[in-house]
Amino acid sequence: MKRLALYFTAPYHVTVQEEPVSRPAADQVMVQTLVSAISPGTELLFYRGQAPADLQVDETIMALAGVVGFPLKYGYAAVGRVVAVGAQVAPEWQDRLVFSFHPHESHFLAAPDELMPVPPSLSPEAATFVPNMETAVNFLMDGQPLIGEQVVIFGQGIVGLLTTALLARSPLASLVTLDRYALRRQASLALGAHASLDVAEPQSLTRLHALLQHGADLTYELSGNPAALEQAIAATGFSGRVVIGSWYGQKRADIDLGGQFHRSRMRLISSQVSTLAPQWTGRWSKARRLQVAWWMLEQVQPTHLITHRFPLAQAAQAYALLDQHPEEAIQVLLTYEK
To answer: What is the pTM of this model?
Structure first.
């Protein structure tokens, strides 16, 4: 049997290759992919060749074992249907709609404990958002927003928008977002931001400070742009928190820590979804956090954030769009012929 698989083969090059796939072993199932989501922040670092060399692709996901380098299979938001089960697998898995942290390919083998059944209330397309929703949940856990706080988010890509959607459900005094693209700012306001500013405008930071009293209590830097970190620090008030959710890859952040920051007692918090912050591990697990992510997907129903769908064979066009015309896209999906 053959499958189609997407490979990052060189900077700015992806190919779709046909390769053999075996029948499932006794303890495995075969999943036929229906749709997978491109995570533009992380995947564009790989696409552009900007991920640090010799870094583990992902130390927590079996399907993403290995180190960064070309050629590379990647992706972690696949939804499909179980089309074959091994002899030792419960027959109830047959035909089940499932999610997996798996690269972009038409068929794949997995153990049942690597799969999550998709709740009946969610479509396959909605289920592809669960990794980014889990990241947004993690950002709230790490930032710990409080009632009446002023919160600012730099970056309204898909993770930033989902974070906005969750924060908008909190009783905040204000929620202000910043992004350079109008399409994202419009989506941000629709999700509940009180204001959304064009960070490229010369007076945007002046306008931001006018909206805040004594600086933000909590600021998120989710833009992926190292230059935004200094802006996030400048927007944050005394004893505030700055949650850094961006992965800059090989890009460097040139920040000034000699001015306001030195006396401000603010905290810079690194937040990444592969682990839980130690203070939560007494009562929380990754499985519990994922349950919350599924619950939030049912509340937000984020499929309106999908702007483009490309057949897997046209994946190169999908990545070129995200790289060259980010102002036109929010969430891009890859679809698979049956």
So the answer is: 0.92
